[in-house]
Amino acid sequence: MAGSSTPRIREADAADAAAIADVHVRSWRTAYRGFAPDAYLDAPATAEGGRVYWQTLFGTAVPGLVTWVAEADGAVLGFVNITPPLAAPAPDEVVPPECGFLHHIHLAPEAIGRGLGRALFEVALERLAAQGFAEAVLWVYGPNARARGFYEAMGWGHDGTVEPHLFRGGGAEAVVPNLRYRGATAR
Fold first, then answer.
1. Beta strands in 6-65 (DSSP E)
2. Residues 8-32: tens digit of each pLDDT
3. Does residue 1 belong to any structural domain of this protein?
4. Whole domain around residue 142: which residue ranges?
5. Model confidence, pTM
6. Structural domain count, the chain
7. Contacts made by residues 152-158, CB under 8 angstroms, sequence distance 24+
8. Alpha-carbon distance 16 to 166, whole Å?
9. Can you tell me whether residue 30 is helix, strand or coil?
10. Which of 149, 82, 69 has the alpha carbon at shortest distance from 111?
11. Is 39 helix (H, G, I), strand (E, B) or coil?
12. For the domain that residue 140 is a member of, what is the CATH number?
């Protein structure tokens, strides 16, 4: 397993897009198994969509968007990114105007339990606080008990907002509740 050296966190750049996409898809396939359809998770289009998403994101200049990676031995083990509230968000990505947005946080399955999630989360909160946000939000799928437990351990909680999220691909679909969590940026 990658990561025999001490992991470090650094700001990501376009050269990291493929590695981030790989972690993102492997994270989905592990964390969402059981509530997102297997056919969707295992579809080649899901992995390809992840690669295109990250290449596009790094190719677009978005003020306030920052991504960090946790890496060890040259391998990306996880990432987090923050964005300003999206201009035209999907219903399950709405951010109150006074809040920052922790858009993504994912770990490679083999990196879970090493403290990297906490380290990435704290880096994101520090930057959001520096941008002037006292609070921030993120969205998490209701059935994702591990992620919800992590956010709650970090002092965040469900703010009461729920939106349906449709997983569709590979000839299958499922709708799950997506919950908005909110918390302070200062720790």
1. 8-11
2. 999 999 899 999 999 999 999 999 9
3. no
4. 8-184
5. 0.91
6. 1
7. 154/118, 154/121, 154/183, 155/183, 155/184, 155/187, 156/181, 156/182, 156/183, 157/181, 157/182, 157/183
8. 28
9. helix
10. 69
11. helix
12. 3.40.630.30
